[in-house]
Every structure is written in C-alpha cells, then in structure tokens.
Design a protein that fits this description.
Strand 8 and strand 9 form a beta hairpin. This protein is α+β, with helices and mostly antiparallel strands. The protein contains 14 helices and eleven strands. The protein has a four-stranded antiparallel beta sheet, covered by helices on one side. It has a three-stranded antiparallel beta sheet with strand order 7-10-11, with no helix packed on it. A two-stranded antiparallel sheet has the order 5-6. The chain folds into two domains: 150 residues, no CATH class; 79 residues, no CATH class. Helix 5 crosses helix 8 and helix 11 crosses helix 13.
Length: 282
C-alpha cells in the first residue's frame, strides 16, 4: 500500500497553487495578502531613504517636510498646522472646510518595482513608490513644474560637470509623473481645485526665479500674484532682470497684464491685510 501511494504521488500532476486558489476562502486570503503587499509602506525601508533628504524629518507618523507637510505612512499628505481655508466664489473668497489632503497627488507607479536609490536596489510596493515620490515632489514642487527648460538643462549639466551623483534619480522620475487634482496653499489657506501649474508666475508672466524666491507668498497661489502687484514699484526699479523673456523691468504692458489678472484672482482677507502692512497700498 505504501508503494502504491508513493507511486500515485510521484506520477500526479499535483499543482499546489491551483488547489489553493480553487478554495474560495484561500483565494480571498491570497488576494488580501497581495493587496497588503501592494499597499504596504515599510518604515524600516523608507525612513532611512527620506531621512537623507535635506529639510525632511522622520517622525512616528511619517515624514515632515520643511515643517509644512506631513506625508503619512499610507502615502497621504496633510498640512502640519491647522489653518483657515478658503475657496473662490465669483470675485470673492469664502471660508470652506477644504480638502482631506493638502495636495491631491497621483503618480505613475508599478505594482512592484526595483529601484536604485543611494546606490542600493530596493523592491518597492506601489504605495512605497508613492510615499517616496510625494516626499520628493513636496520638497521641491517647482523642480517638477519647471517651465524654463533651459534652466533645467543648465542645472543638470552643472551637476554632471561637478560629478554629483543622482542618488534619487529613479524616484525623481516617478515624481515627474505627478498629477495634481487640488492643493491647499499652506500660507494663504486658499484651496485650488485644479492642477498646481494652472497659474504660475513663471509660466504666466515669465517672472525670473530670483523674484519668486523673494516673494513671501507662493508663486503658485493668488497671493503670490497679489504680492507681485503690491511690490510693482520695487521690482520696476530692481537692478536685476525681473522677467526672463527679455521684457524690461518697467514694461507697462507687462505690468498692466499682471495687475489685470490680479484683480480677478481674489485672496483671503488676511493676505491683503498683511500685504498692506508690509508694502502699503498698491
């Protein structure tokens, strides 16, 4: 009998996976397991990686970026501080409950992918890819929304000439696929229910990067445009080129365009109060 059983076992076409998956309960468990692998974010894997990014602090709840954004371990992001939020209603703004996440982000990820980061290979789930790409994107959003390709190419050439390694190149490529559905400006509290590059000062008015760096408010937000209008006299008399398209600093047509657009881009009341206290009336 023993020999017969051995013979049957050795001659069968037994397929363990087919047997397991033919059991409904086992199949459900396997799907749960597969889903867990796809959506997991292993702290012991991602934390050492993001901790090497300047301006990022690892906490028990996730990665904090420049004391402004928290990216949680389920790859969602929130503002660190609770602020009043507003949305545009006609030519005014009204208080609103805002959005669940600070920035509605999605990326082109793989179910599982092998990536080289800081010289080592990692097999990352889709959520781990999203977590790392979200940190990368929120750390330097303008890097991934850059409209001046010449500057981007020059920066890359300088990096190459200096021999700077692209430690996070694989993750940067994912960050480049970012799709934004909404965002809450962390300084003004204005909720934008559209992509972040809809009205960027650099793309809309060809404002030089040094001007953007000088602004208190974001160049992606109505408040940045308002600040630019409030500081018109200052920038008209600047020693450096304010616009990178060759327009002179005191180009009346350019400033008329800026002021006309600003009138149709309302800001929260506190923004206007602060700008008036800092720069006086327009």
């Amino acid at each position: 009998m023993h020999n017969s059983q051995s013979s049957d076992d050795s001659g069968s076409d037994f397929d363990q996976e087919d047997v397991v998956l033919s059991n409904p309960n086992a199949s459900e468990l396997y799907e749960v397991y597969e889903s867990a692998l796809r959506t997991r974010v292993r702290e012991d894997v991602v934390n050492p990686l993001v901790s090497q990014v300047p301006g990022v602090e690892v906490t028990d709840t996730g990665a904090v970026i420049e004391d402004t954004y928290l990216v949680t371990y389920d790859a969602e992001n929130y503002l660190v501080d609770d602020i009043d939020t507003y949305s545009v209603s006609g030519s005014n703004v009204v208080e609103t409950d805002g959005e669940k996440q600070a920035v509605g982000l999605s990326f082109n990820t793989e179910p599982y992918g092998v990536f080289t980061i800081y010289g080592d290979e990692y097999t990352l789930s889709a959520n781990e890819q999203s977590f790392l790409a979200t940190v990368e994107f929120l750390k330097s959003p303008s890097k991934y929304l850059e409209i001046d390709s010449f500057e981007t190419e020059v920066y890359a050439a300088i990096q190459e000439a200096k021999g700077e390694p692209l430690h996070r190149a694989d993750i940067e490529k994912i960050a480049e696929t970012a799709h934004v559905t909404h965002f809450v400006d962390p300084k003004s509290g204005l909720v934008h229910r559209h992509d972040i590059d809809k009205h960027v000062l650099r793309s809309s008015f060809q404002v030089a990067s040094w001007v953007v760096d000088e602004l208190t408010y974001s160049s992606f937000d109505h408040s940045g445009l308002a600040e630019l209008a409030y500081r018109e006299k200052e920038f008209r008399n600047a020693d450096r080129a304010v616009f990178f398209d060759g327009s002179s600093n005191d180009d009346d047509e350019k400033w008329d365009q800026i002021n006309s657009t600003e009138k149709n881009a309302p800001c929260p009341p506190e923004v206007y109060r602060r700008l008036q206290s800092m720069y006086g009336s327009k």
